[in-house]
Specification:
alpha+beta; Jelly Rolls; seven-stranded mixed β-sheet; three-stranded antiparallel β-sheet; 2 helices
Length: about 180
């Protein structure tokens, strides 16, 4: 069987052609790859190029990974959880939590899918050892389309990230209790 994707870096695998099929072995690959990366995440892009109009990614994100809150102009984003659980956190522009959507592949009373079709700050907080998910967004990819929240630290600032994550997890728990 021919491989459907190629390794581009330790954390990125990209489709070789317009036809891609993935299975459990591929999800195990992204899990394994995510463990050895600095950001504790990896992905397989099912799209061939950053210029494609539809971007589909299969990601593994470790619990300790930090995704800085961000928003995208003129883009929709959806997440489908394959394995694990996470909180999708939606923020007001000031940094206050506006909503929390719990996604959990193992619980029948939680959602496994979320779509964000408005320009709002958001992040994922992984609530299991790892999260394997399918993410879809519209392309083409342009790094300048991602606007990072000023209320959240850069991924480079490890000390500030640790403090921010602790405060964020406490705020999420308080927000969910108040719902």
């Amino acid at each position: 069987m021919k491989p459907y994707y190629r390794k581009v870096s330790d954390s990125l695998f990209v489709a070789n052609s317009d036809i891609v099929a993935l299975g459990q072995n591929d999800f195990d690959l992204v899990k394994s790859a995510s463990e050895s990366t600095d950001k504790k995440r990896s992905r397989i892009n099912a799209h061939v190029s950053d210029q494609d109009l539809l971007h589909e990614m299969f990601l593994c994100i470790q619990e300790s990974s930090y995704i800085r809150p961000h928003k995208h102009n003129f883009k929709s984003e959806s997440y489908f959880v394959i394995d694990g659980k996470c909180d999708v956190v939606i923020f007001k522009d000031c940094g206050e939590i506006d909503d929390v959507i719990r996604l959990d592949s193992s619980k029948k009373y939680f959602s496994v899918y979320c779509r964000i079709s408005k320009c709002c700050y958001h992040t994922l907080v992984v609530r299991s050892d790892f999260l394997v998910m399918h993410e879809v967004t519209n392309g083409p990819f342009d790094k300048s389309d991602t606007l990072y929240a000023s209320f959240a630290p850069s991924e480079d600032d490890a000390e500030s990230v640790t403090l921010f994550r602790i405060k964020l997890i406490n705020a999420i728990d308080q927000f969910v209790l108040g719902k």
